[in-house]
Amino acid sequence: MSEPSTILITGASTGIGRHLAETLSQRGERVFASARKPGDLDDLARLPGVTALPLDVRDPASVTAARRQVAEAGLGLDAGDNNAGVGGIGPFASWTERELHDLFEVNVFGPVRVIQAFLPMLLARRGRIVNIGSQGGSTTSSYFGPYTMTKHALEALTVSLRDELGPHGIEVSIVQPGGIVSAIGASSQDADLARFRRAPAPFAEEAL
């Protein structure tokens, strides 16, 4: 019988991340499932075989603390799943620079921070990196420009890392799911509606 794998999942409070944590733990794998909110961490901690890991991918100090906790567990790390992400739509003219920064902070710089922090552990086990992308990583459409920009960036990062880390025994892949029932749309709904409402002419009329 093979030794269980140790897997890190970011953004495991809902949606794909939560399903992965449940499924992998049921298969007997050792899962570090991360979330930001205390209530979500308490919920994850109740899953058998799951260690709830406080982690905010926007915060370098939080990423460092999470790496320390995983390392101190002494289980190594066989795979990292970069699932944490945020959404957002709206006429490009009404996106603020702050909103664009926030989107990239989670969807692009978040995975970059996590990969860089945990790379030594993955190299030691010749492990695997899985990035959760989107069909928006290879296409785009009206109102989805900023969000799909982040997913195109994640695609480029994945392809580059696959070539760079493959010779060192690390597999790097990306998943492009279609529509998924999750909280990602609901969490950005108010901001999305606000962008449409404040869009200048003629974009406001087009959005109706």
List the SSEs and their pairings:
Elements: E1 6-9, H1 15-26, E2 30-35, H2 38-45, E3 50-54, H3 60-72, E4 79-82, H4 97-107, H5 109-125, E5 128-132, H6 145-165, E6 171-175, H7 184-187, H8 189-198, H9 203-207
Structure description:
By secondary structure, the chain is an alpha/beta fold. It has a single domain (about 5-205), classed as Rossmann fold (3-Layer(aba) Sandwich). It is built from 9 helices and 6 strands. It has helices at about 15-25, 40-45, 60-70, 95-105, 110-125, 145-165, 185, 190-200, 205, and strands at about 5-10, 30-35, 50-55, 80, 130, 170-175. The protein has a 6-stranded parallel β-sheet with strand order 3-2-1-4-5-6, with helices on both faces. Helix 3 runs parallel beside helix 5 and helix 4 (about 95-105) packs parallel to helix 6. The longest helix has 21 residues, at about 145-165. It starts with 5 loop residues before the first strand and ends with a helix. The mean pLDDT is about 95.
Average pLDDT number? 93
Structural class: alpha/beta
The CATH superfamily turns out to be: NAD(P)-binding Rossmann-like Domain
| Tally of domains | 1
Look up the CATH topology.
Answer: Rossmann fold
Strand ordering within the main sheet:
3-2-1-4-5-6
List unreliable stretches of 5+ residues. Answer: none
- CA radius of gyration: 18 Å
Count of DSSP helices?
Answer: 9
* % residues in beta strands: 5-15%
Q: Looking at the structure, what is the overall shape? A: globular
- How many DSSP-defined strands? 6
Gross CATH architecture: 3-Layer(aba) Sandwich
